[in-house]
Design brief:
It is a single chain. The chain is α+β, with helices and mostly antiparallel strands. The protein has one domain. The strands form two sheets. A three-stranded antiparallel sheet has the order 1-2-5, with helices on one face. A two-stranded antiparallel sheet has the order 3-4. A hairpin with a 4-residue loop joins strand 1 and strand 2. Helix 1 packs antiparallel against helix 2. It is elongated, with a radius of gyration of 25 Å. The termini are far apart.
Length: 124
């Protein structure tokens, strides 16, 4: 004799568990994307600083600063990031480019000030 199949989890626990998982995933995405955006901007700025440092032997500091300021504006970094420091050292011959800024991470019941300070050294 064939027994009738029982309904899958008649109490509805599976549906509640699925709903909870989806809500948790949505919360992680909602709060994680802005935080990830901050770190992506940091790495893009650092990459541009490395690129300008590689070209440093053939261009002057004013050109480097102008290009980096344009990158800062394009990335939407805070005004504090515009305080670039470009130093050329004669022995050993190298260039050091640095800047720093702070951004606020705001989550429910939690706020943190994150400091970013990219620095690039390149031998010339």
């Amino acid at each position: 004799m064939v027994k009738p199949r029982r309904a899958l989890n008649a109490r509805g626990v599976t549906r509640t568990g699925c709903l909870f998982s989806i809500l948790l995933l949505m919360a992680v995405v909602y709060f994680g994307l802005p935080i990830a955006g901050m770190y992506i901007r940091y790495y893009r700025m650092k990459t541009e600083m490395q690129t300008q440092a590689r070209f440093a032997p053939s261009i002057d500091d004013g050109t480097i600063q102008r290009r980096l300021l344009q990158t800062i504006d394009n990335l939407g970094l805070p005004a504090a990031a515009r305080r670039l420091q470009i130093r050329r050292i004669s022995r050993p011959r190298e260039i050091i480019i640095s800047t720093s800024w702070q951004e606020t991470i705001t989550l429910p019941f939690y706020t943190r000030l994150q400091r970013f300070a990219p620095e690039v050294r390149e031998r010339m």
